[in-house]
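Posting this for the archive.
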Amino acid sequence: MQSSIFVGGGGSDYAQKQNLLLKYGNRHGLIAGATGTGKTVTLQILAEGFSDAGVPVILSDVKGDVSGMAIAGSPAHKLHAPFSERAAKIGFDAFRYDAFPVVFWDLFGEQGHPIRTTVAEMGPLLLSRLMGLSDAQEGVLNIAFRVSDEEGLPLLDLKDLQALLTWVGQNAADLSLRYGNVGTSSVGAIQRALLVLENQGGAHFFGEPALALEDLMRVTPEGRGHVNILAADRLIHSPRLYATFLLWLLSELFETLPEVGDVERPKLVFFFDEAHLLFDDAPKALVDKVEQVARLIRSKGVGVYFITQNPDDVPEDILGQLGNRFQHALRAFTARDQKALSRAAETYRPNPRFDTVDAIRDVGVGEAVTSMLEDKGVPGVVERTLIRPPATQLGPCDAASRRAIISTSPVAGKYETAIDRESAHEILAARAEAAAKEAEDAEAAAVEAETEAAREFKAARRYSGGASSGRARRMSEPESLSGALASVVLKELKGTTGRRIVRGILGGLFKGR
């Protein structure tokens, strides 16, 4: 049974075989070096070695060239021409050209199977990092997640979170009494950040069917681990989304996988390319989270390998946990570069045959300064190593080959069609519709009651209990002022006083004649 991965030849004549022991493959690692010094080849041969040993691999393909692992290499390929000579130089008698079992993934669903997760699974900490929220805004987001749990409002996609935040803003006063200040300005800021995230393509990532981790840990019937390649050439243009997605994936593995302790070989190996994006401007809470995951996930049989240009890109507490090192050339053109070079050299166990600083500066393309864990987990002496050639194609595979591999993948058809089941957006919309209908019914009932009251008043039902005659209605109607005066005058004229007045007037008239 395979117990190690042949990395290359070391020593002054490159005859000393340099191997990575599989039982320490979950002690993590670092692949560092300037652009164009051979990091991708080192990544490729390690992924091949783990796959051959039955270990599934997850890696991100930032430049698109790692997709060539699905195609066997060829001596006719211009990049492979020197490899047969290199294989002979390091005594690599088992060198062969071969293709590996690759599964392509893509957050956008264009160059591989779609990858999705739910908003609830991502959680408020990573979402806050993804959207660059302030502490106050992160607090409001935590309240929204708490409300989601208490109110039975599942958060599956971005429209669920947007609907819930709208509800939180509308009920800010009540929520502030229960959980602390919920500022509508913070709610608005989160909504704007969600819009930016959606414009960057984040909407493709959130939803269902969510990724099942067991689909990343498949082994072929022949016993080779699948190489899961994430197409990241487009994703890398949204660096925060890229870094947060890979950190989420790492956290999910940490939360889900059982403890296995020391194992003969890892259960899974995770390669994190452009690792500096994970730590750039990251809050301390997030860096602490990464450190915790890196420290504890190895007990679950998972190895994590960070790939970056400079070891300084990785925080010191995390760098100290990376037992297997592959340092390609660092170019020290400035004072800052020289300091970084010296710090990188200090992390290796020295070799009396050469100066480590000089070796890191002078190694050529395809060479690396390596140090891997030996028996009992002791770091090996640093060695200049000529990296062995890969069995797979260097450079990207063509679009037709990619499509054929996707169509015959073991997960073909499982994730392609999105599912939109009832969740917070639909539930809150139904509640709002029910409340609007209730208000409409109440208003209609009030209008009807007012109309009926007016009808009863006109019919005098409040007083007599039935309809009155027209004469009674006329008698009940109040008289006008002129009508009342006319009645009084008429009554007076009919009486004694009236007759006296008439007589007086008539008598005066006759006297005048």
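The longest strand covers residues 4-10. The chain has 20 helices and twelve strands.
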